[in-house]
Predict the 3D structure of the following.
Amino acid sequence: MCKEPKIDDATQEPENCKDRLAWVECLPAPNISCRLSNGTQFKFSGEEVGFNKSVPCRNVSGYSYKVAVALSLFLGWIGADRFYLGYPALGLLKFCTVGFCGIGSLVDFMLISMQIVGPSDGSDYIVDYYGARLTRLSITNETYRRTQLSP
């Protein structure tokens, strides 16, 4: 039986998240015996930790999804959303052009809402709940399947 990860209230991610993985303690069933590397036999009672299991988590650094969407919706025409996410050059360009005459504000609102544009440091948004989330799939050299031509 593996324990549930401890969730940080501020980030809604496991507290010990590093490199997109968090480790949780697991307890073997009672009366399970294991042979250790030094040859000794160990019998678990069901109370002690036997091994750890990795749980995927997201790297967050303080950027709220709700704040980013609200800034994009209400102040996107002056570039506040891009300044908040760490893109000052695009924020200044949107400010000087009044959100690219409104078209850039609309496009940015859609991109931020769909989480295509995220924080500039590469972290993920803080979302207000712990649980299932959308993940963006992309085609890379590891995921692309080539079809072979028959000779």
Remarks:
- The longest helix spans residues 65-75.
